[in-house]
Amino acid sequence: MANCSTPPSKQPPKRATATTSALLYSPEIGRSNPGLNTNYWFLSQHMQTEGMPLLQGLFRTVTVANGLILHMVDATDLVNGATESEITPSIKLVFLCDGCSEVAYANNTLCLEATAEAHIIAIAKPDRFHREWRNGRRERKVSLTIPWHWLHTNLDFGPAAYDAIWTFAQSHGGHLRWAIPASLMEQANALFESQYWGAHTRQLQEQAVATQLSLGALSHIAHQALATVAHPPAHAIPTREARMLQRIHQLLHSGQADGLPLPMILRKAGTSSSRIQQRFQQVHGMTITAYLRRLRLQKAYCALRSESISIMDAATLAGYHSAENFATAFKREFGLSPSGAARS
């Protein structure tokens, strides 16, 4: 991993006062990520030493706007080491307002710097987030997690953009860069002055920034995909077939195809062509029935995460009559059991 460390601070850390930032210890850091990470690991043994402060500064995570997770760090590392945490299906956005940081999302290793450029990363299955710690290094970082259950509930784009966003969301480790508008960077920086605001004002500001970041990131994902469509390669799919594929997409995502056999799905979409089936597999790397099976499993995953439903109800939602068969397919798709998803 690239090194973007800064020289260690010469001053010893101070205890928190009205004018100095707080010291954080290993138990507090693990507890400071509600909804963000389901597990947190210290890879360096000395980081778990009782009474040893690891971080000095602000380390705050809030859930806003029906499930968006906003994480803010304005702090200096007090130790060398490494940590990892579990991340679940979502779209991640991360950028620095100041300082530098070494992180990795789903094998995407990033040496972050304050460049007004955000990294957008697709997490399509449970994986690890890795962070390198460097004594004396400071970072002012904002990250936003857009969970899959939020996308299912709140994504309100046109059909082409909707499909483009979901295609990206399912491309595990997919990585885009986005130049954040200057006005939004200013608002993000202002989050770190929120200790001087009242609680209600701070909540409004955090919600506004999270909402604008999510809209900007999702719009960028869609624009990148649609720009490719606007300038198709020589082997592009003919317009008539592309429209038919779009109708099939809309049908699959609407829920109207759930439980239907393939011939009926094709008939409802207005086709019976085997060529369209081949085109679908060419574009998505899987058959229509496999795509629908994955889509229904995703809906079950989101329901387990965001709603109080039983494992059997989730199995029914995914189209399984057997909880055992559902659990097997669920673990194959997401790397964890249905009960594990419900607890995370």
Jot down its keywords.
single chain; 344 residues; alpha+beta; Jelly Rolls; Arc Repressor Mutant, subunit A; 11-stranded antiparallel β-sheet; Helix-turn-helix transcriptional regulator
Task: Characterise the protein shown here.
By secondary structure, the protein is α+β, with helices and mostly antiparallel strands. It folds into 2 domains: 23-227, Sandwich (Jelly Rolls), CATH 2.60.120.10; 239-343, Arc Repressor Mutant, subunit A (Orthogonal Bundle), CATH 1.10.10.60. The chain has 12 helices and 11 strands. The protein has helices at residues 26-31, 148-154, 159-169, 182-190, 199-230, 239-254, 262-269, 274-284, 288-306, 311-317, 323-334, 338-343; strands spanning 23-24, 40-42, 55-64, 68-77, 81-87, 90-105, 108-113, 117-123, 127-133, 138-147, 175-179. Strands 1, 2, 3, 4, 5, 6, 7, 8, 9, 10 and 11 form an 11-stranded antiparallel β-sheet that branches. Strand 3 (55-64) and strand 4 form a beta hairpin. Helix 3 (159-169) crosses helix 5 (199-230) and helix 6 (239-254) packs across helix 7. It starts with 22 loop residues before the first strand and ends with a helix. Residues 5-20 and 230-234 have low confidence and may be disordered.
Q: What is the H level of CATH, i.e. the homologous superfamily of the largest domain?
A: Jelly Rolls
**Which whole number gives the mean pLDDT?**
84
Q: Determine the oligomeric state from the structure.
A: single chain
CATH architecture of the largest domain: Sandwich
Strand residue percentage: 15-25%
